[in-house]
Protein: Kelch-like protein 3 isoform X1
Amino acid sequence: MDRKLGWDGVEMAGDTTQTVGDCVVHGLKEMYRAQVLCDASIIAEGRCFPCHRVVVAAVSPYFQAMFSSPLKESLDGVVQLQDVSPSVIQNVLTYIYTGQVVLTLDTAEQLFSTASRLQIIPLLDHCCRFLMNILSLKNCLGIYTLAFAHNKQDLLQAALPYISHNLSQLSEEEAFHHLDLQTLISIIASDSLIVSSELAVYRAAHCWWNCQPEDRRPCFRELMQYIRIPLLTSRELSEVKEDMSDATDDEIAMLHTSKEERSQRSLPPLRQGMYCEKIACVDLQVREDPNLRDQDFYVDCYDPLSGEWERLAALKSLMCPGCLAIGNMLYIAGGTHQDDSISDTLHEYNSVTNKWLQLASMSVPRSMHGFLTCKQKLFAIGGWNGSSLLAIAECFDLKQREWTPISRLPLALQLFSSAVLKSKLYLIGGETLEDGHHQNHQGLLIYDTESDTWAQLPLGIVSISAGAVATDNGIYVIGGYCLGKPRPRSQNPFVTPELCATARCFFIKEDGGIGKDSVIPPLPEKIAAAGVVRWKRRVYVFGGENGFRFYKAIYYWEPGDNSWTKCRAKLPISYGGVSQFGCTTLNVPNPHIRSLI
Structure:
């Protein structure tokens, strides 16, 4: 029987089919090896490499511009490449024709530079991936320098953490002393440096400066403008002044910043290592106490390393608020006031200044809602406005400082757990309204922040007032209320009587399915409406309720553990326990930084 083959394939011996594309690639490779029909040559250090101009121009905008311009190279097809070794050109051409290249640290750096110069993006990305995979403390400075010189941001960001965590050690290395000025500045200007004191940054810059030849040393003032002088303590300033004994009067004057002057203007941004990640709890007080005023409702902050609590600036009582943090900024949206009215406010707390600021209000009051952050936006979703459940959602742009509506939820929802996973917002379980009655929502809503669309998936289980924390590939759902035997529950007006607290914990995969392979042990108690956060690798559970009593214990679990660990510390309250409060991790400045404010 006759076979008809189109452009996509030709019949080969043995009844195998090869595409035209395969034939073209194979044919060009063979012509390159045999140097047949070559119409261009690349010259490196006097050595000639014949090639086909249409092939190299197809993958390199550099060669395409060269061969399509009225320059000499387009006429005779000869391109002279300065400062490139013959072995590198050989590897570049081999890659262009075969897609293959053997990389080592030395060859990868040379090919990276040449691929960047010739704009051969596939080869550049290939070298970039290789360099990322071999990054170490030993080679991070060289790779960072390479990435900075070619403005390769992904490689730059991969190398920076090695430098950020080891600045003092690396500043002693010869490779550090050989950094050019602009590369050094990009390092010492970075917020990402893991240093507890600005003195470490100064010492690294001073060490580099001392190692430069005197006739090529930049003005030290040029470096000092990247040292955040207001972050130096009095003792640290004394050391700097001793080093600058030969400095000009203007340079010395830079160091004279009184504490009064600092208090009148904001501190420069802190380095990453100047913070300690702690856990903030909002509204732990007995809101029914008539003697408590707004100024009595402190934000309590827990240090998992020391097990100690401290108080931050107070905010008015807000039960069931939206609570999240970005770095050292804490955001509280909505919640229920002491008089049971619902708030529409958005408050911002700066842990550096220890002050609250009220921002633009939401379009509607909300409590028992979702409040999440993604890509410098805050999302307020669903909830209760005091008279009805909400299906409306909105987002606050932290740059524009204004709210805008987003797509409505497929159904009104409250008391769900929520988390962000890979630019999508996950709403798990909760309560909805059907025919005027509260119903358990046995489903999952996923909001795509890119397309502004919702997806609705079945969950198959009841999960109300649970906690949720995201990992790299899914979400842990902790405790909450589930279906149980009917029982009176007069203590909690927010949850229907047929529900009971559960110790159940489960894992939701990125696609919305329940993951059977990611096992998390049940809680030691049946706990709902607790403060649940992820701190480093641990999942923490603070307080909560079971429908009949409240808790003030603190538990944590770490992947790999077979059970939860009970902390010695408890919530810093004198009464039995508390639930429905805001809880999130927050970067808090180290004590010596706070002494500068």
